[in-house]
Design a protein that fits this description.
Radius of gyration: 16 Å
Number of helices: 4
Strand order of the largest sheet: 1-2-10-9-8-7
Largest sheet: 6 strands, antiparallel
Family: Belongs to the AHA1 family.
Order of helices and strands: EEHHEEEEEEEEHH
Distance between the termini: 26 Å
Protein name: Activator of Hsp90 ATPase homologue 1/2-like C-terminal domain-containing protein
CATH architecture: 2-Layer Sandwich
Helix content: 25-40%
Shape: globular
Organism: Arthrobacter psychrolactophilus
Pfam families: AHSA1
Number of strands: 10
CATH class: Alpha Beta
Oligomer: single chain
Length: 186
């Protein structure tokens, strides 16, 4: 990992948070669930999920409004092409339900259905992230590892640190591999 990278100040220990779970919903779909506790109020967490300036610090570019029935599209920023980090095309989505600052649920043409529940707890917020997705069995643990890393990036964003996406593959692909190994070994 490059020490002079803009990502050098970000935590790269993917074992600091508990691993998530995967449960078959039916023959085609699996539900991925991760639970995290953050030392931030639900309102601050809501902004990290819905404000485009904040979402791209840890997750993806977003466009649309966090209102039930509105469009809510994602553009991934950590996709690799010929050794360079690139942006994807927009993945179209729609808000299924939005109740600020407690629930954001949306469907997405690439990632299925994502439901994020925020609950105020002593010292911050509990986040329960569920992604119901139709992927091949061998992709399930890869997806869990990906969400695990993004939710770690969220912790960093809450501390005012942003991922430098052009360097993601050099700096964080090894972290994704660490997270993936946790899931494979569980």
């Amino acid at each position: 990992m490059a020490t002079n990278s803009p990502n050098a100040a970000l935590n790269k220990d993917m074992t600091r948070h508990p691993i998530g779970t995967a449960a078959k919903v039916d023959a085609e779909r699996t539900e991925l669930t991760l639970t995290r506790h953050y030392a931030a109020a639900p309102e601050e967490m809501w902004a990290m999920l819905t404000d485009p300036a904040k979402t791209q610090m840890w997750w993806a570019k977003t466009r649309g409004q966090a209102k039930t029935g509105s469009s809510f599209d994602l553009k991934w920023l950590n996709v690799k092409d010929e050794g360079q980090g690139i942006e994807t095309d927009w993945w179209y989505g729609r808000i299924v339900e939005a109740t600020a600052p407690a629930l954001l649920e949306f469907s997405n043409d690439m990632h299925g259905r994502i439901r994020i529940e925020l609950t105020a707890v002593d010292g911050g917020t509990q986040l329960v992230f569920c992604n119901t997705v139709a992927v091949q069995e061998e992709v399930v643990l890869m997806s869990l590892a990906g969400w695990h890393v993004h939710l770690d990036h969220l912790q960093e964003a809450l501390e005012g640190k942003s991922v430098h996406w052009q360097q993601w593959w050099d700096d964080f692909y090894p972290c994704w591999q660490q997270a993936h190994a946790l899931y494979v070994g569980s």
